[in-house]
Amino acid sequence: MKFNMNNDVVIFGMDNSWELASKIGKSINREITPVQKTTFADGEQLLFSNITVRDQSVFIICNTSRPVNDNLMSLLIFIDSLKRASAQRIIVVMTYYGYARQDRKASGRQPITARLVADLLSTAGADKVITIDLHNPSIQGFFNIPVDDLRGQFIFSNELRARKDKFVIVSPDHGGAVRARQLSELLKNDDEIAIIDKRRTGPNKSEIMGVLGNVEGKNVIIYDDIIDTGGTILNAAHALKKQGAKKIIIAATHGLFSKGFEMFENESIIDEVIVTDSTDHSSLSHFKKLRVLSLAQFLGLVIEANLNKTSITEIYNAYSQGKF
Predict the structure, then answer these.
(1) What total number of domains does the chain contain?
(2) Are residues 289 and 301 in the same domain?
């Protein structure tokens, strides 16, 4: 793919995504600019660019994982600063969209915070949002600006295609069945998937009702968009083991690990956990069972597609054909 090397582009890396932003810069041979940040004694933050952005296309590499509120507020302040500095176009590359799980009213008097976040980003001055594996793709409809919700399964298919083992792709719930099917098709797995039938009993709590599909004597990959505390997906792993599954690998685009990674490292039935660097995992590098796949090349190609005004479908097709 031919890269557009015009100089009317500035790419910023927020503090919480600096490592990923630096890798993206190397993959497309572009400089990544740090965000200037001052924190006052009372906790207020001042964020701004130290270079001119007038009439430029600006990309912000960021995520809004823990601490969610701080990271979200920092992003909104920085977007506002760019708008007031006369940036021509502000594109937010949000590798993890905080509050995505609050996408509907599960019961009376609850907020739809995913919509609120969409409104805040638009009001602050974002012209487009690029994200990856939204918890619910329908969140795109909360925006009145363009949204590219990228598919993480292309990253995982590249990794898994190189392995000799054949796997049954398992969705940890009914809602993730389409995601599991898409990964299975990319792996040319004869459409073999299984689904965990679970019932949500509270925040980060669930009850496993059964397994739909045959996993006896087979290697499985439990594929999800988010691992938060890890309790639900570990329950799913135990249910699969009881059904006779052999090797069990957990894969998820966003590894939050709110309760740490030790529960996976110390669980004998888990062979490996694969996540992307949509959030920072530098503090977890000593764990043997954790494998982190980088989004850098993928996102770099997407950024260049936006600059070259080419289709992201071309990138998907290249990954499908194993060209990356």
Answers:
(1) 2
(2) no
